[in-house]
Write a structure and sequence with these properties.
This protein is 27% helix and 33% strand.
């Protein structure tokens, strides 16, 4: 992809900081709108709560899954009918790399949200990179890559 990056540098750095702060658990959130009007919405990962309530239905923990819920999910869903829709949903992959997993694909296809997904590769020593994925039929393909940040 050429031209201006699709994510403002300050938003990317804030996502990286959130990824490091929540490590070794996955962080999550979304970006509403575009350009100078874009707004970063960091979210609470509810995956551990769901796992504790029903580990059979929710076998993943926050170390290998994420779940946006409550008011934050409601704001996300409502944004698609607003003048400032969510255009990127993000989450981190602690210790495993920036790729769009089969679980990510299943969840994204089922949700059907009209947006891209950013996955952040976060390791003990910092963020290696982030990759942006876009839906292409029943799969998601990488459309942009961002350098990481140490520490």
């Amino acid at each position: 992809m050429s031209g201006e990056p699709s994510i403002a540098r300050e938003h990317l750095l804030a996502i990286y900081q959130q990824s490091r702060a929540e490590f070794p658990k996955e962080c999550c959130g979304y970006i509403l709108g575009a350009g100078a009007d874009a707004e970063l919405v960091p979210c609470i990962n509810r995956q551990d709560q769901l796992h504790a309530l029903d580990p059979e239905a929710h076998p993943r923990t926050a170390e290998n899954g994420y779940n946006i819920g409550g008011k934050q999910l409601l704001q996300l869903v409502r944004s698609f009918e607003s003048d400032k829709p969510a255009r990127i949903i993000y989450h981190s992959h602690p210790r495993v790399g920036a790729y769009f997993s089969e679980e990510d694909t299943r969840a994204a296809v089922a949700a059907g949200y009209p947006c891209d997904y950013l996955v952040v590769d976060v390791q003990e020593h910092g963020v290696i990179e982030a990759k942006l994925f876009r839906r292409d039929g029943e799969r998601y393909v990488e459309v942009e890559r961002f350098d990481g940040a140490a520490g």
